[in-house]
Design goal:
Shape: elongated
Number of helices: 0
Distance between the termini: 22 Å
Number of domains: 2
Strand content: over 45%
Helix content: under 10%
Length: about 500
């Protein structure tokens, strides 16, 4: 996990990741000041170390002397092997009310130089978009640039607002075509859903000859997507167009070999003032119906240090010793049952970083789920699984010292998602890695969040007036790797190069 380090707990903002020569390069905003764009590198996509910062705000009276906002790194078409970073800048003179897009260039991803040729910054035109501070929100939206390459032709996408309609429904994705060297011609919006205040951090990918537009929505703090058969649309949505559940934001898509990876930061507590963490990446795929899905990052497998499968009934202990509950393990198949009331069946040992996988078969109409980081009082995380309706929820549930009777426990739903059950068998995969929790059903990620209320404890399954058969159960212990940006102590200034 990558977190911000400093005075505040929410210092990491929007991210962008580039894979180059076997390393991942992370660029991210720093909150709340937005005064520089940070740079970190990783060999595995999970553990990171800080290097020299990429960009800083300019000197006073420059167009970007106030704040730097979201960026995107792509190949520089005018210099083989080089990169250019489109970034958002704000000026003090306008009190940050006008957003513009500039460019910085680099030959090695470490040393960046702003383009001061006079072709930048780009300003959004008024023919299609709000472009004056006396319109709409009384600020000019033109941020979160993204470069899409269509057979060598470059297009610039950005978060913007149309210049008509209800004020809180003007959010759109602006579109500009690169018609010459660093020359852009603006077109009508690529997409205006006529629903949101802003459509932030747009991404566009072409998968299976279909265009998928991905963006983040402030109203529900989720990542959504839309699709079209041509680049310019029209863009449509499925009945469920949520790509990442609540708390995940500012998703960026990057290419890593023949895969597309999705990176984002997570709001702990679902507020902009909670702690921000960058979640591990997920692989972006298209399912058989043409809908976008996320799959677990393969890099977790390389962290495995031990694994086992329960071989007998005594390998799982009941937490509450419910007389109506029992566990049975034979030939690699595990049955957990409770004809009345609740029981949790726990694997041996206490664990923080692990993968638990297998295949679930529900018997009866009661309740079932997974538990992790439980103590002897049953305090910990509960993952509720409604395998008939396709609803999954994760809760933090436990005792609370002091206070009144009503305040003696807490029960907090952290995240929820749903899916369409397709068969009686339900392959599952639960990953816990430092503060990160991820649940996949049928091979696709449904829950992805960060929380640190419970740091370690026992892991297992629960049933309530139900029976569950678990086939091919496997428990894998992972090597912990919470990111230390200074792994060898506080460095000398010159080591950050």
């Amino acid at each position: 996990m990558y977190t911000g380090y400093g005075f505040r707990s929410y210092e990491i903002g929007d991210v962008d990741v580039v894979e180059h020569e076997g390393k991942y390069h992370l660029f991210h905003l720093t909150l709340p000041n937005h005064d520089y764009i940070a740079h970190a590198v990783s060999e595995d996509g999970l553990n990171w170390r800080r290097v020299k910062n990429a960009l800083f705000i300019s000197d006073p009276r420059a167009w970007d002397d106030d704040m730097l906002w979201t960026m995107h790194v792509s190949a520089d078409p005018y210099k083989p092997g080089a990169r250019r970073m489109f970034y958002t800048g704000l000026s003090m003179f306008e009190r940050g009310r006008v957003q513009r897009v500039g460019v910085a260039r680099s030959d090695d991803l470490y040393a960046w130089h702003k383009d001061r040729s006079g072709k930048y910054p780009l300003e959004i035109p008024g023919i299609y978009y709000e472009h004056r501070i006396d319109e709409g929100r009384h600020w000019v939206s033109f941020r979160d640039p993204f470069i899409f390459d269509e057979g060598g032709q470059k297009y610039l996408l950005a978060a913007a607002r149309v210049n008509h309609g209800p004020i809180i429904r003007r959010g759109c994705v602006a579109l500009a075509e690169e018609v010459g060297r660093d020359q852009f011609e603006f077109h009508p919006p690529l997409f205006h859903p006529m629903q949101y205040d802003d459509l932030e951090v747009p991404n566009l990918v072409n998968l299976n000859n279909r265009y998928y537009l991905i963006g983040s929505i402030r109203e529900d703090v989720k990542v959504h997507y839309w699709y079209a058969d041509s680049l310019t649309g029209p863009y449509k949505n499925f009945s469920d167009n949520v790509l990442m559940p609540q708390g995940n934001y500012a998703a960026r898509v990057s290419r890593a070999g023949d895969r597309y990876l999705v990176w984002n930061f997570f709001f702990k507590g679902l507020t902009t003032r909670g702690q921000h963490l960058m979640a591990p990446p997920k692989e972006l795929v298209v399912d058989e119906s043409g809908e976008l899905r996320l799959k677990s990052f393969s890099g977790f497998e390389r962290l495995a240090v031990d694994s086992f499968s329960p071989s007998d009934t005594e390998a799982m202990r009941p937490l509450y010793k419910n007389p109506h509950a029992a566990v049975q393990i034979e030939a690699g198949t595990c049955w957990v049952r409770s004809s009345s009331g609740f029981e949790a069946f726990l694997l041996p040992g206490e664990h923080r970083n692990f993968i638990l996988g297998g295949e679930l078969h529900m018997v009866g109409s009661g309740k079932c789920g997974l538990v992790l980081r439980l103590n002897d009082q049953g305090d910990g995380y509960y993952l509720s699984l409604d395998l008939y309706k396709g609803i999954v929820q994760v809760r933090a549930w436990g005792s609370k010292a002091g206070g009144s009777v009503e305040e003696s426990f807490h029960y907090q739903q952290l995240q929820a998602a749903h899916y369409v059950p397709k068969r009686d068998a339900h392959p599952f995969r639960l990953i816990a890695y430092e503060q990160y929790i991820e649940l996949s059903i049928d091979g696709y990620v449904l829950l992805t969040l960060a929380d640190d209320q419970y740091t370690s404890g026992e892991v297992g399954f629960y049933v309530e007036s139900a029976g569950v058969r678990i086939d091919d159960m496997k428990f894998t212990v992972l090597d912990g790797g919470e990111t230390d940006i200074y792994p060898h102590g506080i460095p000398e200034t010159q080591s950050l190069t």
